[in-house]
Amino acid sequence: MQPSETDWFFYLLRTNRGQIYTGISTDPQRRLRQHNGELAGGAKALRGQRPLQLLYQEPYPCRSSASKAEYQFKQLNKQQKEAFIRLKTDGALASSPLE
Questions:
Q1: Which of 27, 39, 54, 60 shows the greatest Cβ crowding within 10 Å of its Cβ?
Q2: Does residue 92 carry a pLDDT above 80?
Q3: 96 lies in some domain
Q4: How many contiguous H segments (helices) and E segments (strands) does the chain have?
Q5: What pLDDT shows up at residue 3?
Q6: Cα 72 from Cα 22, distance rounded (Å)
Q7: Residue 81 is part of which domain span?
Q8: Starting at the edge strand that comes first in sequence, how are the strands of the sheet with 8-14 ordered?
């Protein structure tokens, strides 16, 4: 699926503590900049965990389907989440400093 201007994305970030943060957005790169404090509007919970790294993003045709993907990911346990990231990124970005 080719991203368009109206696509929603499910995205995964890794904090400087190795935790995984999930979100949805129409512009994951902008959200990353917001979360990292470069732009206004990032999640307050992430302020002490910068810099953040974008691990993965996947386009969806609407907000509802992106939200469903985020919910499904949040239902996984930690090992399943790490396996998902390794599978989707070929292990290139999956290493956690806590492991």
A1: 60
A2: no
A3: no
A4: 3, 3
A5: 53
A6: 11
A7: 8-89
A8: 20-25, 8-14, 53-60
Instruction: Round to whole Å and give the CA distance between 50 and 61.
Output: 30
Cis preceding linkage at 51, omega within 30: yes
* Encoded tokens for 11: 């995205």
Question: What percentage of the chain carries pLDDT values higher than 70?
Answer: 85
Q: What is the pLDDT of residues 29-62, one digit of tens each?
A: 999 999 998 998 888 888 889 999 999 999 999 9
Model pLDDT for residues 79-88, shown as the tens digit of each residue: 999 999 999 9
> How far out from the chain centre does Cα 93 lie?
12
Give the distance, in angstroms, between the CA of residue 81 and the centroid of all CA atoms in the same chain: 11
- Residue 52: phi and psi, rounded to 5, are -100, 150
Model confidence band, residue 96 (pLDDT cutoffs 50, 70, 90): very low
Find the CATH number of the domain harbouring 19: 3.40.1440.10
User: Look-up: residue for tokens 């045709």?
Assistant: 61
Tokens of 37: 């404090």
